[in-house]
Fold this sequence. Notes:
Layout: H1 3-31, H2 36-59, H3 63-81, H4 90-112, H5 119-139, H6 157-165, H7 167-180, H8 186-207, H9 210-223, H10 230-252, H11 326-388, H12 393-400, E1 407-408, E2 428-429, H13 430-481, E3 482-484, H14 486-489, H15 492-503, E4 507-512, E5 517-519, H16 523-541, H17 545-550, E6 557-566, E7 569-576, H18 583-592, H19 598-603, H20 606-611, H21 633-642, E8 647-653, E9 657-665, E10 669-678, E11 681-686, E12 690-697, E13 701-704, E14 707-712, E15 715-721, E16 745-753, E17 756-761, E18 764-773, E19 786-791, E20 797-801, H22 803-806, H23 817-820, E21 835-839, H24 843-855, E22 859-863, H25 866-874, E23 881-884, H26 893-902, E24 911-915, H27 920-929, E25 933-936, H28 941-956
Parallel strand pairs: 4-6, 11-20, 15-17, 21-22, 21-23, 23-24, 24-25
Antiparallel strand pairs: 1-2, 3-5, 6-7, 7-9, 8-9, 10-11, 10-18, 12-16, 13-14, 14-15, 16-17, 19-20
Amino acid sequence: MNDDDLNELIDAFTAECEEFLQSMETNLLAMEAAGLKERQAAVKEMFRAAHSIKGAGSMLGFQNVSAAAHTLEDCFVILRDRTDLSALEPTTVSVLLQGVDALKKITIESVQHSDVTTPDQTENLEAIAQIFAQFQAKYGKSEQSPVPAVSQSTAPETLKLIFEQQVPTLFNRLETELSQASEADLAKSVTALNQVYYQLSGLAGMLQLPDFGKVATALRDLIDSPDLTLQRLQSDGWTIAQNLQTARQQILEGRAIDIPEISPSPTPPDSPTPPEISPSPTPPDSPRLSDSPTPPEISPSPSPTVPPSPTLPVANPQRPTIRVDLERLTELVNLVGELVINRTNLELQESELRGEVKRIRRNIVDLNQFGGQLREEYDRLSFAEWRGGNGNSGLVKLAAAEPELPMIANGKSSPVHAHFDILEMDRYTEFHSTAAEVIETAQAISHSATKLDTLAMKFERSTDQLRRITEQLRSRVMQLRVVSFSRAVDHLPRALREMCLTYDKDVNLLLVGRDTKIDESLLDALRDPLIHLVRNAFDHGIEMPEVRKASGKPASGQIEIEARHQGGQTIITVADDGKGIDPEMIRRKVVTKGLATEEQAQEFSIAELYDFLFWPGFSTTEGVSDLSGRGVGLDVVRTNLRTVRGTVKVDSRLGKGTSFIIKLPLLLSITDALMVKTDHNKIAVPLDAVEEILHIKASEVHIAGNQPMLWWREEFIRLVRMQDLLEYSVVAPDAPSPDPLSLDEIPVLVLASTEGMLAVAVERLIGQQEIVVKPLPPPLSKPRGVLGTTILGDGRVVNILDVDDLVGQPVVNSSIAAVSGKVQETPASSSQSPQILVVDDSYTIRQLLSMTLTRARYRVVQAKDGVDALEKLQNGLDCSLAIVDIEMPRMDGFELLRSIRSTERFAKIPVAMLTSRSGAKHRQMAMELGANQYFTKPYSEAQLLQAIPKLIHHSII
């Protein structure tokens, strides 16, 4: 076995142990609130998990893991056989949880140190041994022998289970390798057989079956032979395989293993089949998964007779696996998204093709009608001319008309035709021939149109098939990277239980949406934020039992964690029913810590006050405890979420509880959306956020003050225009779009989110469409109300609405004004819009800030450092606000701020610091030097734009 193969096995062992250990911990925690039958089932499940770890550890040579798992397995045996599970004590669960923790540490240490016994391992092994001794002293010794041995009558239950379910898999692999061995791949076959030997010998050592180990040793002797050939490998290999099957059957029957020694006999080189190895043919139902079309022949030999083994169920062999780089998998996922976009483009072209075919058919019908009318008109004219004369005079008139309508074919005057009347012989002119050609051409075009119609139908069927294949491919690819949300929260019940025991609180944890699929790369970014939020809810939110009873609440608190998908995002909510957050307490803390003056603090909104909770070093607790007071919990939450483009928002009601809402973008989200038109723009609204689609009359709109309202399902909800919710503008070449609320019939979407319900009026409903959600890439900041973008089949980029951002927010008089006729309210200090000085040594940051401020109708002047900014000010630059970075060459932000405040001419200019330094020391220094506001990178564009008018207003006053 080479190093790569061994490392792959160890990786699989580590992952399997993590699952088994998590299963044991989950079952132990569930037993406390479960009934008797559920407890009995949980004990059996934990016994099997410990047994599996023991076996796997022994096979790979991790003897410390195997010994620890075996001791823990014995504890579960005592719990199963000697304990009254209906009266399970919490201390018993706590002790077993400690044992699981110790086994987890031993497993990690063994893998890291190649099973070398370290002092930590010794300590953990002794801890598990003490737990087993406590169980024996309290409940009595287990009646089962600690090490399974072969009985003379029947095999023990555990031994029988192993040889019925696990061993056949190894035998199947052995026989497959023997049957598929070739001269070219002989080295690979030897490597694979070496792995089989290690597993068999490890199994024999674990179960203390030396005779079975001797049979397996013959395989090692064979593959270690210096003169090993393909013929000998297959000849002796099949003998060893048959002997192993015989030994397995003898163990299952409880008999001693009696297998003759193998005496290798050379096989002739030209022998096409493996040698004879047993006295009787193998039954057709013997457990074997060999893929060889010509299995070895079985014929009599001098070896003793062995009864055929009975039919046993054979487990499926473990399927081979490969490891793929995460980047390659991400590229594959992105290509699937591009495939969906191009498939949408193909569907659009198919629709256009069908439309053109229908149009051609309509034109062909018109052409056929015209040709028929043309022929009828000619016949009518000819007959009218004939009736105008008498007898042959008609012929004379037609003949006279020949210069205008020349006769062709049999229409020419000839001795043969001269004596025929016009009714007795048809006469044709160029007019008639032209009409016939028109009709024939129309029929040919009709035939081609029929073929086009057939091709369009085939194209449509192919497109439908491509859609189904794309859906299957997308589903399979997404399954490669997603795991259940339970992987991120399964450790939380244990942590909460320990906190409840330590701090004398009774708190229940409710997990909703455990099967919600999330990208595996998000697990590491989620674990720390979730544990911090649970600790925060436990310490700051949930009151002590006596306090809860006094306020009319149940003594037991509840923390609920919910995960769900909505509109291309994963939304995780951590909510508690505790005392909530007092915004006035946060306001006082902000002033006390010197983060803002008392006047500034009074102007902060509730959302701005909640944002201070995520600042480094900020805490609402007076003292420092093991749970809180250090001001690092919620800071870790926001920092970790920013690494995966996630956001967190707080919603709290004093005395009712607090909710933390986490939004995470999906790696690739293909979802259904409703396409609408508003203000000359197409907007995609996630269909799962649309509660209902209505068409209402203008008379159904009610007015409360200045706010339109809609009566919907026995309640009034706000009615707003879509363009009033969005803060961006696209100048259209044509006239302004009509006001949706002024239409006779108003298309309305009722949107639902965690914030409530909102009715949105749009200009027109376009239809439902499957879209690929593409989040905005960094360093672009996410605009409020926009989730991301998608690309339509015709190549146009369309914004996707973020319903959660918009529902519950006030209507914004935004910058879509000039086109739609609305008047924009800009913060003006004079006849012109305010001018802002941006000082940063990073060209990218300066450009991003300038674009943001320009869109908001501010004038912008850039400076690359403090010296450049000071020169511009001294040269007469009139600015209403300066946004300054701290770390810059020549003159940093602190020096520039000190110079501005010390110069009487510039002293009243508001200065906002924008820096990546988020520590309290830098913030305190900036405030002491006279900074009016302090922002950290990456900054929130919405918060920055919201704060700028207030800063400029202060400078005017």
